[in-house]
Amino acid sequence: MARGAKKARDRVLAFGCHPDDVEFMAGGTLALLAKNGYEIHIACMAGGEMGSPTQPAQEIRAARLHEAETAAFVLGGRFHYAGGQDLEVEYNDFYRRQTTRVMREVDPLIVLAPPPADYLVDHEETSRLVRNAAYIASVPNYDCGVPTRHTRRFPYLYYWNAVGLKDIFGRPLPITMRVDISSVIRTKKKMLACHESQRQWLAHHNQWDEYTETMKRWSRAEGEAVGAEFAEGFIQHLGNGHPQDNILKQILSELCIECR
Asked: Which residue from 200, 187, 201 is spatially nearest to 232, judged by alpha carbons?
């Protein structure tokens, strides 16, 4: 069997910063992978503790983590919380250990992560942490603080597109592929709708209450680039050690449209 070919119970880990990040930017691709028999794991670095104008941090965290768990369950998946704090994510020893702990717990074949350039520093730091963990989780002597076994391999690593489909200077990211998610857009909407407290927070803080409609607008814009109704964009990490072939293309065939 060729490297990267699907085996029973191969796992996918989508590791975002906050509850709902994964569903917003990669939920459709996860739904397609789940339909292809892959075991889905969703993780977030922080608990969304700042996401309420009235509720205390611990209370809103509990609500948002429950919503994230419910969203993962839509795909029959499992949710993981890395233990971080909203607006405090940084590339340090604590977060490196926590991220590696989750990576080792899942031991994924495929990892989806935030892009290195995004609108919020928390997102960018999460991207660095997940990228680092994808590499060092396989190092036996690295102690992440809990007795977990090191991963068996370097995973395939992909970054989803930036929030708003642009970097902080308004430029598009160098997307290398888009996944046609038209057939699962209802599933993606269902996952995102689980995050009701986040919808309420964005209506208050960002003065817009078009939660699922914004997701559909971005997905439609991605789709227009490749002749699909809805799509999600990705950049494959091709650094030393990581697989160089595109396993999303192998799995999803014509639904994964390469852009180069």
From this structure: 187
34, 40 Cβ separation under 8 angstroms: yes
**Tell me: the pLDDT tens digits for 92-117?**
999 999 999 999 999 999 999 999 99
CA trace torsion 9, 243, 182, 233 (10° rounding): 140
H/E stretch holding 80 reads strand 78-84
Tell if the pTM clears 0.90, that is, is over it.
Answer: yes
Sequence-distant (≥ 6) Cβ neighbours of residue 169 within 8 angstroms: none
**Residue 3 within a domain:** no
Residue 90's H or E segment, with its range, is none
Q: Please give the single-letter amino acid code of residue 136.
A: I
In a domain, 216, yes or no: yes
Specify if 121 maps to a domain: yes
Q: Specify the 3-state DSSP secondary structure of 228.
A: coil
On whether residue 6 sits in a domain, the answer given is: no
pLDDT in tens, 39-95: 999 999 999 876 656 777 788 889 999 999 999 999 999 999 999 999 999 999 999
